[in-house]
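Exercise 7.
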Amino acid sequence: MRVFVTGASGHIGSAVIPELLQAGHEVVGLARSETSAAAVKALGAEVRRGDLDDLDGLREAAANADGVIHLAFNHDAVFAGDFAGAAAADMAAVRALGDALGGTGKTLMGVGMGRTGTADSGEALGSNPRSAVARTVAGLGEHGVRSLLVGIPQVVHSTRDKIGFIPTLIGIARGAGVSGYVGDGANRWPAAHTLDVGRLYRLALEKAPAGSQLNAAGEEGITVREIAETIGRHLDVPIVSIPAGQAADHFTFFAPFMTLDNPMSSARTRQLLDWKPEHPGLIADLDQGHYFTTE
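Solution. The predicted structure, written as tokens, is:
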């Protein structure tokens, strides 16, 4: 298959592209800068210059592909406090991709969860601006698109992880001189190794039924306290409970994420795709030490 990948030079894209190429697929990667283009080329993919705001370019690239894996998202806007704006741009991009693929039976893989089995999770998903994008991807199945959704766990970890939950929490701990969690820290974050997620994308592209919801969690849920304890041990700083009323001051922009409790089961996905995570779990990966080296 000829596959168009957005977010091609990113954390997950850098694992997806080698998986696809090794399996014999052709890959075209979207790159918004010379640096990104060089990274995509180094991975072995064909480069297409552009970004999510170039809707005509997205339509053209999708029309010339057999399938699209949409991974790009404007994280810079999120860090600047404009999550809603980033989600709106993502929605426009998905609609453009859907326009190009409509009626063809070709694949569009998006990030997100279109449905959930619990009321609490459903409420959390509904409050996330990206949930509307996931619903739009799922809805493209009614317009002749083989739509697939991949639920990405909060923590995707490896040496490729530079701006995710773990680097952020380590940075906060370094700055504060303590490794903290909120309350009893019993809330859980699901996790997966980047390379295992890359393999899931390839398997899903090749054999997942249209309309599938695929969950990419290698580990269903690890308590935030255990994560904070591991970080504290490696940084040799005290491990402390931060009262909920002080969380915003201590964790600043990251405070809302610190109380997320979102265990994610991948049992159905493993069975459907014969997907078996093979790389180290989160705590074992942290213990390898690469997250704590400074350049």
